[in-house]
Fold:
Amino acid sequence: MINIIGLGYIGLPTALMFAKSGQKVVGTDYNTDLVNSLSKGDLPFEEDGLEVLHQEALTNGITFSNEYQKTHTYILAVPTPYIKESKKLDPKYVISALNSVLDVCDKGASVIIESTVSPGTVDKYVRPVIESRGYVIGEDIHLLHAPERIIPGNMVHELEYNSRTIGADNIEIGEKIKGLYSSFCKADIVVTDIRSAEMSKVVENTYRDINIAFANELAKICHTDNMDVYEIIKIANMHPRVNIMQPGPGVGGHCISVDPWFLVGDYPDLTNLILTARKINDSMPRHVLGRIRDIMREHKIKDISKVGLYGLSYKENVDDTRESPSLQLLERMDEHLAFGVKVFDPHVNKKIVDHQYMNFEDFLNEIEIIVLMVGHNHLKDNMDLIKDKLVLDTKNVYPFEGVYKL
Ligand code: SAJ
Structure:
């Protein structure tokens, strides 16, 4: 039986996938409401294909509990936040889950950490906890790191078809756990050492952050001299060895905007490029604010409450708002005592900010400038409804003439 600890964005789909492919699975989370609703068949967040997968997993006997199970295989998918001031990883959830596992596990159990951790975390924080409790790593406990790679919005598909990395101290154990993941993963699974697994995960997300920062810097350059950044990136990308990402209002989510900081926190003297990329991406909400101010001036609009942000989630077609560019922008406005901007997101059904509308038409009736922060499909289906507004399109999705861009 596999006991999966932490039923969030990663742990839950992974648990369901293991169950669907015939493994006996218990999902454990400290949140009783979540455990109860999952047992009843309700999901805590929207994700393509997750409902069907949930039903299949329930049919296959997955159970959810507050309790850690006595078993031989554990997967830890708990949050690994970073400490804002020091930019270093906070391992408190991993350590506490690990201690609870050690309270109940079988001798010889494998403990697989799926949560993203900064390079060296296993050596620095995880091994000492196990050893301090008198366990011998490699005998009493096998330690592994199997970072995930799935992208919100396409998680179910990517669980099956993305290649994976498994870091282990011992190749045989690594191969055994590779066999376990092969029960649902159809792509290559590389077995390596734990440090390489930790580092490659953070490197993947840092690469993407730097590439997006390059696109964002290009957007700023092109804006100052009236060039079309999208056209230029499109042409450049036709070169067989160029692949520039798209500019946008900022980088959100709990991965790309967080993981590079682990490297900056741990190697402050060696991370010039990585830090600069982070700063460029973090500067984008402020750049959008500047563009809103330009449009207000041009059209002599003085009242900020005539401005509406479309999109609160960190990217299209998801309801996840963690570190979202819109929230970053609202924070910046708050710092400048500018209140009253209106907000709407069809995927965010809970009220999380002031002046948030639940109805698109009510929202549109109140505003003159609409700022497209997220290119949800909902927006693409309703473009006609915003034609009479001043449109600031930060995602290059508005198909009509007369639009303001980044
Ligand atoms: N973004 C841009 N321009 C782009 C692409 C994205 O501005 O061209 C923005 C998005 O709007 C969003 C942010 O970047 O605000 C991050 O979104 P994302 O879709 O790039 O990535 P995430 O954070 O949803 O998922 C990433 C993925 N990592 C990589 O592609 C290297 C995913 O595979 C990882 O599993 C995930 O991080 C994770 O959990 O680490």
In short: The chain has a mean pLDDT of 96. The first strand starts at residue 2 and ends at 5. The domain at 246-405 is CATH 3.40.50.720 (Rossmann fold).
